[in-house]
Structures are given as structure tokens and as C-alpha cells.
Design brief:
homodimer; alpha/beta; Enolase-like, domain 1; TIM Barrel; 8-stranded mixed beta sheet; 4-stranded antiparallel beta sheet; 14 strands; disordered N terminus
Chain lengths: 437, 437
């Protein structure tokens, strides 16, 4: 069996196969396409994807009485940011932001997001995620910064709701699909030699016990002679070094054009890689599809995507064959689950992208515990956060062992931040420097 | 003559007409399309658009010696932000930010933009606009906030370069196309009745002397029964009230679906409107094209677009028939001029979108003075800025008279901010609240 066959889907993926290549499939005026076919033995059309997007994700029925969000606070200490929501009964939910994105994005929590959520019923979270986007001027800010701010607020609210329902966060957005989550360990280095990368990957396998690895190709959004020479060493070299038992993925971060994508993609196929991530710049939709159409290897992408319409396009046109919404950049777990459902309709797996900071591995674990259509390995970047927290009721942190992490337990996120640390944080009440005391 | 014929192009628009509807025209692998046709009597293809994007906009040859950017400062007072660049000789360039966007976006000036520009030769501005995007993690932030920060830095640098070359800013990015700029006055209200809007539009014509108007349709990113009833009153009512001598435009801000767009679009055609802006949500590329294909009226859009690839798609596929890059949201005058050139290649006009705050009308005037392919009327929202400045060497501010504003004179932006006001501003040195003194 070819190693890429291991990239098989878990239970729950629809058996529908290749969509037509028509790029107009999504226009509502074309919803008559395939009208007379049965949903189970035909290609899904634009109306099918639109219908999927209307299905609720959050189990609102778990909550019989209003959960009024009385306060939404942005807390800061050093370069760390936490969002805290407090309801009328004084119950709280907290989320940790990714400090390497929040340093650029945090004002939007106050200017664009907070006004839509404060004072509202947290049970309406799903509707509020739509309202916060179409409210002027928010839709203009479509992009990672705005949607990350929404995600941090969403996760704090889900933490609160989980505590109220006495359920782990994942149980609010789906059914338990697995007890433990297999991991691939990702390495982000591009500065060092191929030999250095191989040693680094070795140390990552030791750290997490993972049986799958990902590393970087190209020079990030462009390629150079030096990066191409390095790529040609890495692709066969990493395979040779780790042998056939380790699943390998490669990520070009949009470095290539179509010809170089095909060249490297074929080399990855020869050496039996599991997927090829972002061959061309992420917003080159048709070029992405052109690469995917011409390669046998699974083409992955979606980390940079912040538009639901474009995810629909990428999935319905099979421009990607594995979708990777970033759980934060794309606006949270509920929106990401909608992407996963569109992928499921098209018979494609979803493997969310995460960042190493800001509890990425914990948010991922909640999501994947409830995710039907995925693969055997999820992204893992270690436990890098400096903020003190423990798994609730223990003195442990949340990290990999023997290549797995366990499905999260407890209520809400299932963690407790050090109360002393939280007490030292300061609430930020204005986005404008001259108005900060 | 139909009023919409007034939307004729000024000198310089290529005579090329309708592009094919093929949505794959942009894929590089299809560059063999129409290979044997002469550029002058064939439909432009993806390679033609790519070639246009490689043409420099900035006249680098004007500068014989390096202009090293020694300092790039973000200044703040109350809710106003100014970017100031200082070169090694102590010469300075300044730009005023739009306070209603900068309050959400300003940290990115420090975290994402400044590191690419400080210490560099300002003559390399055009290359730096590319570098600042592909540098990690900046491309992930594609969107209004990131590109606005780049634009404010770009305009401060162009102000500096104009002062050094002793030329107005527009002369650095093109040739003079006109001495004065015709205006349409835009009104943003959606809360009040149709009758209220008509009275408001009347007062705007009095304020600026404009002979063209724009107002809002729909409920912004959605429509309701009430908004539809109001739209049906406004479309014939505004025409009836102002008669045939006033050019009228209508802006739906993505409120409609395809059927409602066609319904309202046909009503706009009946009443001889000049263009119909953003009928469907801005990121619904194929739905935008479907509407444009089925209507005779010019369909305008682009305000929310921050991807060069997507502008290329919208233009090459004639999904829009008038392009409106926002000079700030899209990353400045140089990037916007590239969009205008793509439009010119396709035989389409460019009419930039502007905001009312942050010297929108001045930046627009510099751009349009050098813009060959445009229409008779440019967006105008009055002189709303609170920051004290004068046209250099006068005691006047920059605003409309008799429906026109003059092509800017003087050097750089051609304005002088009140030095006392600038001295009162504080430099912001960190994006993180706990690190602000």
C-alpha cells in the first residue's frame, strides 16, 4: 500500500467524488444544475453547499435560560493577551490569544468585535458570528486580524458555555469521534541547511513521539536558486533518512508558480509524501486548481483563507483536496466546522491549521475530537506558551505523548489559568494609545 | 443621448472590448491563449495583465542619489494618527491616517510595515511595496488593515520624494491628465427615509456644487422588507427630484443576491443611473460577474478588494465594468495605479473609492490628476478632517468649489500641517499596551 493511502478519511465522509470543473457552479443562478439527481448519487452543487452552511453547529438546545454576556474584557500583561467574558451570574469564560498575532490585531477586539457581543445572549453565538461580520464597517476588515479577534471572543464564550452545560467545549459543536488524536509535528525553519532540517525533524519526533512530520519548501511566497537547490535535497533526503514508516508532508507557503509546483509535486509523489501544502500563493485560486488537477498528490491549503465564499469555491471546484482552515485566523471553531462540513459534502478531509502559540494544540484537540472527516495526523507544534495554566484538577499542561494527545476532558476548555497571573493582567479599555491610562 | 453615455472614458483607454468569459484566462499555464494575435486587435490575456503589473509606476529616475529612510514614526494625538518619515538629511514626509480605520489598524504600522521600510532607500519604494507583503508573516494579514498601514507609509514617503524632486506627488506616478477634477458627492445614510435622503442630497449639491450624486441602497450586506421598499422609492424618486441634468449613482454595499440585483439593476437602468455599485457581497466573484453579464448598466466595485490577483480576475473576466480600488485600503497610490492600468488594458474606467476622513479628497486628487482612464466624476465626501493643515503657502484647505477641485499644486502632497499640532503629537513606539509608557 502506498503511504499516501494512509491519508484515508475517517468515518463520516460522504462518498461523492469529483465535482465538475465548472467555476460557475456556485452562482445561485445556476442552482438548477443537476436538479433531478438524487443527493446521494450525484455531484453536489452550489445549493447543496449553501444548504450545509445554513445548518447550525452550536447545540443551542443545551441551554434553557439566557446567558447574558455582561462584560467582555481584553486583558494584557507583557506581550500576552487574554479575552474574558463574564455573564450576569458572574460565570466566566477565558481564551488565550496568540501573542504573535494579537500584538498586531488586538484593537479590533475593542473597536469591531466587542460592540456586537456585549449585552447579548451567548446562546445566540452562531447568529452573532454572522452579525459581527456584516455590521459596518467590519466586513471591510475581512482578513486574519479581524477574524482572529472574533475567534478569541468565540472561544471565551464557548468556554463559558461549556462550564454552564458542564461539558467539554467539543461537545457543544459535535459528537465525539475519537478518544485520542494522532499528530504530525511541524517545523517552520527555512533559514538552515537540508541537513540541519533533518536533525531538527529528528528531535521533533523525539519530543512528541509523532509518526508524521511536516517541513517547509521554497523561500515563502517566492523561490530562489538556493531554495530550489535545498528543496531538491530535502524531498528525497528526508524520505531516505526517516524511511517508509514516517508519514511526510511538505509546505511551500505559496512559494511556487505552476511549473515549479508541478516539478516539486512530482518529486513529492515519487517519494510518497502525504500532502503538498500551498504550492502557489494562497489567493491564486485558479492556479491552485490547475496544480491540483495536474498532480496525483493531495494538495492542501486554506490556512490564509478568511472568506467563506472562497472556501466554498476551493472545495466545490476541488481546487484543494485537503482543507486546512486555521481555527483562529478563520474566525473560530464554529466557522471552521462549516468549512469541514462543506469538505465532507465533497468527500474531502479537513485537517485544521494551528499556530504554536495561544493554545493552538488545545483548540485543535477540541475541534478534531468532534470532526468526522479528517486524517490520522493533526498539526502539532509543541507546548510553547509562557502563560501559566494547568489541565483543570491536575498539575499538568496539555501536550503530546507517544505521538498522541487525548481528547480534552473537563468542562469548557478544560484548563485553569493561574489566578495570580490573571490578577496581574490589566484590562485594556481603549484601542487608542493617547486614551490608555 | 442617454445619461449613462456620459460615463464615457477620458483619453487613454484602450479600444479593446469584451474579454472572453473564460475564468481560466489568468492561469499562467494558459498563456498560449491568443498567442498569434497582435496586442492591438485582440482580447488581452493573462500574460498581458501580468506584463502590465511588471511596469513601474514610480518615476525612480527623478532621484539621482539615495534617499535613506532614517526614521519612520507613528504619531498620535486624541484619535488622530500621522505617519512621518525622515531621511538622513532630515527631510520629512507626512501623511494623515483615516481615524476611523487607524483606531483598529495602527499596530501593524509598527509590527508589520516599519521593519521593511526603515533604513531603506525610499527610491526603492516600488520594490518595498512587494517586499512588505511577502515578508513573513505579513502576507497572512492580507486585508484592509494591513494594506491601509502600508498606504499611509507609502504616502508619507511619496510626500518626502515629491519635496525632494520639487514636484507634486501626482507627477511622481504619471503625467498630468487634467487641470481640474469633476466630482460626485456621496452620501452614506441608510437609517433615514427616502424623503430625508433626497433633502440630504440636495444639501450636498449646494455644499460642493457637484453635478453628480451617489446614495445607498439595501441594508448593507443584506436586505430587508423595509430596505427594499425604501430602494423602490429612492430609485425613481431621486431621479424625478433632480431631473435629467444630474448624474446619479447607487451603491448597494453587497446587500443583494443575484435576483434582487437584477431587479434593482433594471430599475436603475430605466431611470438612467450611471453605475450600480457592489450589488452582491464583494467577495462573491462569480455572482458579481453573473450580475454584470445580465445587466446593461455599468457595475462598479473594488472598494473592499485587497488582492491584486482578485482585481486581475474581476477585470480580465469583466466581472466589473468600472473598478474602484480604495487608495488606502488597497495599499496606496502605486498599487492602485496598477489596477487602473489593468482596467485600461481591458478598456474599463477606474474611479477610485475614498473615505471622507484622512485627506481622502487630496489623495484622490493626486491620483486622478495622473489617471488616464477615468470618468467625468470622482468621489467626494467633503472636507471632514479635524487636523489643522493648509495648502502650502496659503491659508486655505483643500475642498470642492462649483463641483470641481483643482489638480494639486506645490511639492509632495502640497499641504502643511500646523507645526504646533504636530509638536503636540506623541510618538507611539510599541504596539502593546503594557509597553506604552
Amino acid at each position: 500500500m502506498k503511504r499516501r493511502d494512509l491519508l484515508k478519511l475517517s468515518a463520516g465522509v460522504a462518498a461523492t467524488a469529483c465535482l465538475g470543473a465548472s467555476t460557475t457552479i456556485l452562482a445561485s443562478s445556476n442552482s438548477s444544475l443537476s436538479k433531478n439527481l438524487q443527493p446521494n448519487n450525484r455531484t453536489p452543487n452550489g445549493a447543496d453547499f449553501d444548504a450545509i452552511l445554513q445548518q447550525p453547529v452550536l447545540k443551542r438546545d443545551l441551554f434553557k435560560t439566557p446567558v447574558t454576556i455582561e462584560k467582555l474584557e481584553l486583558l494584557n500583561k507583557d506581550d500576552e493577551f487574554i479575552v474574558r467574558v463574564t455573564d450576569k451570574e458572574g460565570r466566566q469564560g477565558l481564551s488565550l490569544c496568540n501573542s504573535r498575532r494579537a500584538d498586531s490585531a488586538w484593537p479590533m477586539i475593542l473597536t469591531l468585535v466587542k460592540p456586537t457581543f456585549e449585552g447579548k445572549d451567548a446562546r445566540d453565538l452562531e447568529a452573532l458570528l454572522h452579525e459581527v461580520y456584516i455590521t459596518s464597517p467590519n466586513y471591510k476588515f475581512q482578513g486574519l486580524a479581524f477574524w482572529s479577534c472574533v475567534a478569541w471572543v468565540e472561544i471565551a464564550i464557548l468556554d463559558l458555555l461549556g462550564k454552564i452545560a458542564k461539558l467539554p467545549l467539543w461537545a457543544l459543536i459535535g459528537e465525539k469521534q475519537r478518544e485520542k488524536i494522532g499528530l504530525y509535528h511541524a517545523n517552520g525553519d527555512r533559514k538552515n541547511s537540508a541537513e540541519w532540517v533533518i536533525r531538527k525533524l529528528e528531535s521533533l519526533l523525539e519530543e512528541s513521539g509523532a509518526r508524521a512530520l511536516k517541513y517547509k519548501l521554497g523561500a515563502r511566497m517566492h523561490y530562489t536558486e538556493a531554495s530550489t537547490a535545498r528543496d531538491k535535497k530535502l524531498i528525497p533526503g528526508v524520505r531516505k533518512h526517516f524511511g517508509d514508516d514516517v508519514t511526510l508532508y511538505a509546505d511551500a507557503n505559496g512559494s511556487y508558480d505552476i511549473p515549479m509546483s508541478l516539478y516539486m509535486g512530482k518529486m513529492l509523489e515519487e517519494h510518497d509524501y502525504g500532502f503538498f501544502e500551498e504550492p502557489v500563493p494562497f489567493d491564486y485560486l485558479e492556479e491552485t486548481k490547475a496544480v491540483t488537477d495536474q498532480l496525483a498528490i493531495t494538495v492542501a491549503g486554506g490556512e490564509q483563507e478568511t472568506s467563506m465564499w472562497r472556501f466554498k469555491w476551493l472545495i466545490a471546484n476541488r481546487a484543494l483536496t485537503l482543507v486546512q482552515p486555521d481555527l483562529i485566523y478563520f474566525g473560530g471553531l464554529i466557522r471552521s466546522m462549516r468549512v469541514a462540513r462543506m469538505a465532507q459534502l465533497a468527500g474531502l478531509p479537513c485537517v485544521p491549521h494551528i499556530s504554536g502559540l495561544g493554545l493552538g494544540q488545545l483548540y485543535m484537540a477540541h475541534f478534531v475530537t468532534a470532526l468526522p472527516n479528517t486524517t490520522d495526523f493533526q498539526e502539532y507544534k509543541g507546548d510553547r506558551d509562557k502563560v501559566p495554566y494547568v489541565l483543570s484538577g491536575t498539575n499538568k499542561r496539555y501536550k503530546a505523548k507517544d505521538g498522541y494527545i487525548n481528547a480534552p476532558q473537563g468542562v469548557g476548555l478544560g484548563i485553569t489559568f493561574d489566578p495570580e497571573y490573571i490578577a496581574e493582567m490589566k484590562e485594556i479599555t481603549s484601542s487608542i494609545p493617547s486614551q490608555l491610562s
